[in-house]
Design a protein that fits this description.
The chain has 275 residues and is an alpha/beta fold. The protein folds into two domains: 4-71, Beta Barrel (Ribosomal Protein L25, Chain P); 80-261, SPOUT methyltransferase, trefoil knot domain (Alpha/beta knot). It has helices spanning 21-30, 91-101, 121-138, 152-157, 176-180, 201-209, 224-244; strands spanning 4-6, 15-18, 38-43, 48-57, 62-66, 70-71, 80-85, 106-111, 145-146, 150-151, 164-168, 189-193, 213-215. α2 packs across α3. The longest helix has 21 residues, at 224-244.
Length: 275
């Protein structure tokens, strides 16, 4: 597999450029590339990539010939926003990594009533670096937008208009699979997941009023750090089925459901560790 290196790429020009110090260390010391070796430079901010060749290496620097930037070859199939209740410890690190690898295009950390962690904007900078590294590792040509932590009401208000809105709830009457049947090739999706302990009743009501439909993942209560991979993995499988279908549609709309009328009766509860 060709080595991929995240680099800011000029929008038009090709040429010979010194690599940023971190990238130079990465290609020459971590991967021990030599003059004449090639790699793919990609810009996760612009979703572009280019062929690159090392042309000079010194003790502290490296110079590469960068080809003309082109649109990245591998991008998510749809816009997917993950609103994730802030978690304790390093759980958010893993959630950001998993969400990036499974195609999330935006991640909004939300401060909820039961969030023990109260991350600040500096923590979001760390998560952005994790997202870029996950993009490099998995081969996608961009990285998700990573918002600074928001209060839950602000995070819900930031959900893209027109997206199918799902809130994970282990007690929901409707399984996630039934709701995925209304996801078409062009459907954008917003997923709301609570922190440890879930969302309180007021927050559930707010999510319901904002058009979120509650959905369950089987009959088990999942830890909050498990939900992201489970839901996004299911969405990836469904999207691949759509792409493989001759009509671009695997199933029909779920009875009485549509992306524009996705608010279900009852409140939404996030699937999370209830301990």
């Amino acid at each position: 597999m060709t080595l991929r290196v995240p680099l800011p790429l000029a929008s038009t020009a090709a040429g010979v450029f010194p690599l940023p110090a971190e990238a130079a260390t990465y290609v020459t010391r971590v991967h021990r590339l030599a003059v004449g070796d090639t790699f793919i430079a990609f810009d996760p901010e612009r979703a572009t990539e280019a062929d690159a060749e090392l042309v000079e290496i010194t003790k502290r620097s490296a110079v590469a010939r960068i080809g003309a930037p082109r649109p990245a070859a591998v991008l998510p199939a749809r816009a997917v926003t993950l609103i994730q209740g802030a978690c304790k410890g390093d759980k958010m690190d893993g959630i950001v990594r998993d969400a990036t690898e499974l195609g999330a295009t935006r991640i909004i950390p939300a401060i909820t009533a039961r969030s023990v962690a109260r991350p600040d904007a500096a923590r979001a900078d760390r998560w952005r670096r994790i997202a870029v590294e996950a993009s490099r590792q998995c081969g996608r040509g961009d990285a998700p937008i990573l918002d600074a932590p928001l209060a839950l009401d602000a995070a819900i208000a930031a959900a893209p208009e027109g997206s199918l809105r799902l809130c994970l709830d282990p007690t929901a009457p409707t399984p996630l699979g039934a709701l995925l049947q209304i996801v078409g090739a062009a459907t954008n999706v917003t997923i709301l997941v609570g922190p440890e302990g879930g969302l309180d009743e007021g927050e559930l009501d707010a999510a319901s009023r904002a058009g979120f439909t509650r959905a369950r993942l089987g009959g088990l209560v999942l830890r909050t750090e498990t939900v992201c991979a489970a839901v996004l993995g299911a969405l990836v499988v469904w999207s691949e089925g759509l792409a493989a279908s001759p009509q671009g549609s695997v199933g029909s709309s779920a009875p009485g459901s549509s992306p524009s009328s996705s608010s279900a009766s009852g409140s939404s509860r996030s699937a999370s560790d209830q301990s």
